Amino acid sequence: MSRDLVPRWVILLLVVLALVLPIAICVVWAVSALLTEMHDAEGGVVLKYIALGGGILWVVDLICLVVVQGLGALIDRHEGE
């Protein structure tokens, strides 16, 4: 029986999101600025809010990743005893 508290696929998903989300946020924010400069203010505002939501999701992902790694370190430390 595996003693993993968190499955490996969850950790992999968190790491992939931590790498992909900043790129996606930058692209959405850049398109928002482009739309604003093309006098599509409504589209620019919508994409700014989407980029803000992506930033919040990224921060939550990073916090979850730190917590999962901390739990993994605690489990590894107790296995040696």
Total DSSP helices: 2
Beta-strand content estimate? under 5%
Straight-line N-to-C gap: 18 Å
Number of distinct beta strands: 0
Mean pLDDT: 90
What is the string of helix and strand elements? HH
* Largest beta-sheet characterization: none
What is the 3D form?
A: rod-shaped
- For the record, the count of structural domains works out to 1
Description:
The chain is mainly alpha-helical and 81 residues long. It has one domain (8-79). Helix content is 85%, strand content 0%. The protein has two helices and no strands. It has helices at residues 8-37, 41-79. Helix 1 runs antiparallel to helix 2.
Describe, in short, the structure shown.
By secondary structure, the protein is mainly alpha-helical. Helices cover 85% and strands 0% of the residues. It has one domain (8-79).
List keywords for this structure.
mainly alpha, single chain, 81 residues
List the helices and strands and how they pair.
Blueprint (H helix, E strand, L loop, with lengths): L7 H30 L3 H39 L2
Helix pairs in contact: 1-2
